[in-house]
TrEMBL record:
<keyword id="KW-0731">Sigma factor</keyword>
<keyword id="KW-0804">Transcription</keyword>
<feature type="domain" description="RNA polymerase sigma-70 region 2">
    <location>
        <begin position="24"/>
        <end position="88"/>
    </location>
</feature>
<dbReference type="InterPro" id="IPR013324">
    <property type="entry name" value="RNA_pol_sigma_r3/r4-like"/>
</dbReference>
<protein>
    <submittedName>
        <fullName>Sigma-70 family RNA polymerase sigma factor</fullName>
    </submittedName>
</protein>
<keyword id="KW-0805">Transcription regulation</keyword>
<dbReference type="InterPro" id="IPR007627">
    <property type="entry name" value="RNA_pol_sigma70_r2"/>
</dbReference>
<comment type="similarity">
    <text>Belongs to the sigma-70 factor family. ECF subfamily.</text>
</comment>
<dbReference type="InterPro" id="IPR036388">
    <property type="entry name" value="WH-like_DNA-bd_sf"/>
</dbReference>
<feature type="domain" description="RNA polymerase sigma factor 70 region 4 type 2">
    <location>
        <begin position="108"/>
        <end position="159"/>
    </location>
</feature>
<dbReference type="InterPro" id="IPR039425">
    <property type="entry name" value="RNA_pol_sigma-70-like"/>
</dbReference>
<dbReference type="InterPro" id="IPR013325">
    <property type="entry name" value="RNA_pol_sigma_r2"/>
</dbReference>
<dbReference type="InterPro" id="IPR013249">
    <property type="entry name" value="RNA_pol_sigma70_r4_t2"/>
</dbReference>
<dbReference type="Pfam" id="PF04542">
    <property type="entry name" value="Sigma70_r2"/>
</dbReference>
<dbReference type="Pfam" id="PF08281">
    <property type="entry name" value="Sigma70_r4_2"/>
</dbReference>
<dbReference type="InterPro" id="IPR014284">
    <property type="entry name" value="RNA_pol_sigma-70_dom"/>
</dbReference>
Length: 172
């Protein structure tokens, strides 16, 4: 059965179709969770929580073609909440475990992304880590495509400036 047809049935309350949808997007959702949480167990837990939340709210989806984007949005929001909670715990205890990031460039990228607002982080993640089309992001955010493009341009400019300044300060 076609993806769109399965999505329509799931939105209308068909439990089997919902399970099929979750199976279709499971890998993508797990990758999203891993990108944020950096822990396989936490990512699996996130998938379970997102499955539950999606099941409860799937009837609110208006456009079946954007069901995957909707699920990804739920995952990102959940993961950002988890990261905020763990950052509070980490900063309270002053424990910093950077051993997860073996490559210096990953550390620098993570630092740069943390300077961005949650909305901008989400935009970068959707566009460059999930390869979400600008049109889909616009539909998900309920804003014009031009606004998505200008926000992307602004965020990328900010990141370029950050890396340029960082590079210059290291060579002083």
């Amino acid at each position: 059965m076609e993806e769109l047809e399965i999505s329509k049935k799931a939105i209308k309350g068909d439990d089997d179709a919902f399970l099929e949808v979750m199976q279709l997007y499971k890998e993508s959702l797990l990758r999203a969770a891993l990108a944020f949480l950096k822990d396989e167990h936490a990512a699996i837990e996130a998938l379970q929580e997102v499955t539950y939340r999606a099941y409860k709210k799937i009837h609110t989806v208006k456009e079946p073609a954007y069901l995957k984007t909707w699920l990804t949005r739920i995952m990102i929001n959940y993961c950002q909440d988890q990261v905020k909670r763990s950052n509070r715990v980490i900063s309270d205890n002053q424990v910093y475990d950077i051993s997860v990031y073996q490559d210096q460039s990953l550390i620098e990228l993570k630092e740069a992304l943390e300077l961005l607002s949650n909305e901008d982080q989400q935009l970068i993640y959707l566009k460059y880590f999930q390869n979400t089309k600008i049109k889909e992001i616009a539909a998900m955010e309920k804003i014009p495509e031009g606004t998505v493009k200008s926000r992307l341009h602004k965020v990328l400019k900010t990141l370029r400036l950050y890396f340029k300044e960082k590079g210059e300060s290291e060579h002083v």
